[in-house]
Amino acid sequence: MKDERKTTTGRRDFLRKVGIGTVGAGATLAAPLIAPAQADSETDDEKRKARYKETDHVKTYYRVNRYPG
């Protein structure tokens, strides 16, 4: 008879190899995400301006949901 040996990977070896592959893939994916911080382009006046506007759809939302107005 032929002496055939099957190469099997044990559970622990498999988990080690998967873990190493995951760490390597994570490092290459995270590299582009690390970038220097950029300052915001708004001036102090623009930061303090009013942004909320009570438009018709906002008034309808308040009316339908019975907010006091």
UniProtKB/TrEMBL annotation:
Position of the signal peptide: none
Origin: domain of life: Bacteria
PROSITE patterns named in the record: TAT (PS51318)
Entry protein name: Formate dehydrogenase
Organism for this UniProt entry: Bradyrhizobium macuxiense
